[in-house]
Structures are given as structure tokens and as C-alpha cells.
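C-alpha cells for chain A. Residues wanted.
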């Protein structure tokens, strides 16, 4: 198969692309605008593979999307391109409306037109897999889990834009018969994560002896999912998921933010004893406006119907992650210095490669 992956230079998209190239015979067309969170260096290990193709394209650009579908002839679409950071959505929601809603609309339309042109046999294999978040369900109290039946109740500009995109995907299936799949997953963590999100930010700040800014009282809870486990789940849903269905994906790893930060500090105390105790850097800061209290996923549907289980516990995954950030100094330095943004000029011509 040839899979068109949007957002393949991002954190989760790059894990999906690396897995396809490393572990399957499939080929990948990576459609990415390379915003601040897109980093081609995360694809260095597979970018020379003849089954990997890159298209430097904005998903809001209908003409460019039409060209990509026409020339690349993909068998499936996996849609990960998005603005993904809640804090950025609070300070500047416009890009979130544009990419997450308008961009998803443009991609759906390009896919619908392309799907309509396919012969029956290729139509039967085509899938549009939309990757979304558990944040569309809103916030939980101390008890309960999000299931696929939980009503949507998004609270941040980010989650509202993702909820909108989920609804568009659903409508394109019901109205136009586009064969769609939607997955909603919990907070991911792991290698190649842009250091604006909690876990990589804390690792890098702690190693640089900078304050560790914990919002509010640090008691908010997230359900952590190792990115490679998520990528495996996405591949399984693409291959075996039932058209029109939603699947929740979660790591069964509920932790308060403070527990996460303390775990990182304990691992760093062991690996970099000269900086111990790293927890002395914890600094409680003003809370995020509208901060959702708790997210937690009931992943029993994907477990029962498709046989997916995460391989990593939080303890194994967080250790791997901390070690990765300590061992991958070049990637980290290029991200923190901004040098990663030059990769597009030095490695690719504008347009396709
Ligand atoms: P990311 O921010 O690391 O990567 C996003 C990628 O999309 C980048 O490569 C960026 O360049 C690209 N992109 C942004 N706007 C684009 C546009 N207009 N056209 C083309 N490309 C564009 O995000 P991520 O963490 O890898 O998340 C991937 C997907 O998974 C997103 O849809 C996100 O909503 C969803 N998700 C993420 C998490 C998480 O914990 N990271 C959890 C649940 C769901
Ligand atoms: P984040 O990684 O931004 O993911 P999301 O908001 O999508 O869940 O944040 C995870 C949790 O960590 C969230 O409750 C906010 C909190 N947080 C901090 O306490 N300090 C920080 O510097 C950041 C970035 C997040």
C-alpha cells in the first residue's frame, strides 16, 4: 500500500512514518507544511528509503492537495497534521481554526474527489483515518473513563477545533460515503516530542537547571500513552478497523502532573547525580485558563475488537524517554537553537522530494 500521512514530520506522525518504513513493506507520502513543530530531522533514519516521499504542502491548499493525490495515487490517508498545543490555542486560536477545521475540510474534499475517481477494487481498500484526541470529550472528575459513547464537550480552543474536525469526518462518511475511521487518543509521550509539552519540557529544563513550571497545584491528571504504542494502534485500526467507527486509544497510565515531574526528576537524579535533587527546581506557576482536571480513556473496544494492548508501562516508557533525550543531543540542540528549521533548505527543494 501507499499511505498518505499528513503531519508526518510531527511527533506522532514521524513515529507512524518510521514504523511503516521500518516494519512494513508499505510506502509513505508525507504531506507536511513544516510549521514550528514539524521537524524533518525526526525522519533522518528513513528519509533515504525509496519507499518514502515528502510533499512540503499546507493541507489548507486545495490545489496542491489535488496535485498530490493525482500524482501520488495513495491507497489510504492518515490525517495527523494539526496545531496540537493547548497553551498556543489559548494565546492564538486562529491557526487552530485554520489548520484543524479548514485544513481537515480541504483534505476531506480532496479525498472525496479522489475516492470518487478510483476503480471499485481500489475504492474497497481506501480509508480516510482521522487522528484525534480524548480532549474532545471535555474533562472528568475523580471517577469515570471516556468511552466512544461519551458526549463531546470540548473546553479549549484546541479541543473545540479537533471536535469540529471529528464532526466533519463523520459527516463526510454519512453524507458522501467516504470510508472513514476516527481514533481519539490520550496524551502521548516519547522520543522526538517538541519541548513545549509537559514531559520533554520538564526533561530539558531539569537537565539545564531551569525551573520546572507546574501549573496550579499539579493535581491535574493525564493518561499517558507511549508514542510507539500509539503508532502501532493506528496501524492496526487502519488495517482492521470497521468503517465509520471510532476507537479510543489510551495507555492505562493515569498520573497527576506532579507525579510525572517527580518521576522524571528521580530518573535524572540517578542518571545525572551531579544535578540532584532535580525536584528542587519544581516551581508552581499560575494555572492554565480552563484547565481540564482529568482525562482517562477506556480502551476496551480496541482491545476487544482489534486485540491492541500497549507494550509499555509508564515506568518503562518514561525511562526510555528520559534516556533518549540525554542520548540525542544533536536533535535536542537543533530544536532548542532553532537550527532544525533549516533542514528544509538544506535537504529538500520547495515542493516535492
Ligand atoms: P505535532 O504538533 O508534533 O505535529 C503536527 C504536524 O503537523 C507538524 O509536522 C506540522 O508541521 C504539521 N502541520 C501543522 N499544520 C499543517 C498544515 N496546515 N498543513 C500540513 N501540515 C501541517 O503534533 P502531534 O503531537 O504529532 O499530534 C499529531 C496528531 O495527533 C494531531 O492531530 C493531534 O491533534 C493528535 N493528538 C496528539 C496527542 C498528543 O499527545 N501529542 C494526543 C491526542 C491526539
Ligand atoms: P500538555 O503536555 O500541554 O498536554 P495537554 O494540555 O494536551 O494535556 O500538558 C499536560 C499537562 O501538564 C496539563 O495538565 C498541563 C500541564 N503542564 C504544566 O503543568 N506545565 C507545563 O509547562 C506544561 C506545558 C503543561
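Reply:
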Amino acid at each position: 500500500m501507499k499511505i498518505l500521512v499528513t503531519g508526518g514530520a510531527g511527533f506522532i506522525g514521524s513515529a507512524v512514518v518510521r514504523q511503516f518504513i521500518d516494519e512494513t513493506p508499505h510506502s509513505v507520502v508525507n504531506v507536511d507544511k513544516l510549521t514550528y513543530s514539524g521537524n524533518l530531522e525526526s525522519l533522518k533514519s528513513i528519509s533515504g528509503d525509496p519507499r518514502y516521499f515528502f510533499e512540503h504542502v499546507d493541507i489548507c491548499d486545495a490545489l496542491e492537495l489535488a496535485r498530490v493525490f493525482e500524482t501520488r495515487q495513495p491507497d489510504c490517508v492518515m490525517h495527523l497534521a494539526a496545531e496540537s498545543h493547548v497553551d498556543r490555542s489559548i494565546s492564538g486560536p486562529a491557526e487552530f481554526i485554520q489548520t484543524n477545521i479548514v485544513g481537515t475540510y480541504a483534505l476531506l474534499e480532496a479525498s472525496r474527489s479522489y475516492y470518487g475517481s478510483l476503480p471499485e477494487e481500489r475504492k474497497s481498500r481506501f480509508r480516510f483515518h482521522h487522528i484525534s484526541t480524548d480532549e474532545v470529550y471535555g474533562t472528568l472528575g475523580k471517577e469515570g473513563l471516556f468511552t466512544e459513547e461519551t458526549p463531546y464537550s470540548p473546553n479549549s480552543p484546541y479541543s473545540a477545533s479537533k471536535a469540529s474536525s471529528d464532526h466533519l469526518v463523520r459527516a463526510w462518511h454519512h453524507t458522501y460515503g467516504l470510508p472513514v475511521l476516527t481514533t481519539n487518543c490520550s496524551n502521548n509521550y516519547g522520543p522526538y516530542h517538541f519541548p513545549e509539552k509537559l514531559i520533554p519540557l520538564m526533561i530539558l529544563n531539569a537537565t539545564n537547571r531551569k525551573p520546572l513550571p507546574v501549573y496550579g497545584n499539579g493535581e491535574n491528571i493525564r493518561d499517558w500513552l507511549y508514542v510507539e504504542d500509539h503508532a502501532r494502534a493506528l496501524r492496526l485500526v487502519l488495517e482492521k478497523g470497521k468503517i465509520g467507527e471510532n476507537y479510543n486509544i489510551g495507555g492505562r497510565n493515569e498520573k497527576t502532573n506532579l507525579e510525572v515531574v517527580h518521576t522524571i526528576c528521580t530518573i535524572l537524579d540517578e542518571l545525572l547525580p551531579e544535578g540532584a535533587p532535580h525536584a528542587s527546581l519544581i516551581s508552581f506557576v499560575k494555572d492554565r485558563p480552563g484547565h481540564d482536571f482529568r482525562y482517562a480513556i477506556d480502551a476496551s473496544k480496541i482491545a476487544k475488537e482489534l486485540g491492541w494492548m500497549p507494550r509499555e508501562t509508564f515506568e518503562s516508557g518514561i525511562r526510555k524517554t528520559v534516556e533518549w533525550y540525554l542520548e540525542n543531543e544533536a536533535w535536542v540542540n537543533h530544536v532548542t537553537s532553532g537550527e532544525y528549521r533549516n533542514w528544509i533548505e538544506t535537504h529538500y527543494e520547495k515542493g516535492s522530494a
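Residues 94-116 form the longest helix (23 residues). The chain is about 45% helix and 15% strand.
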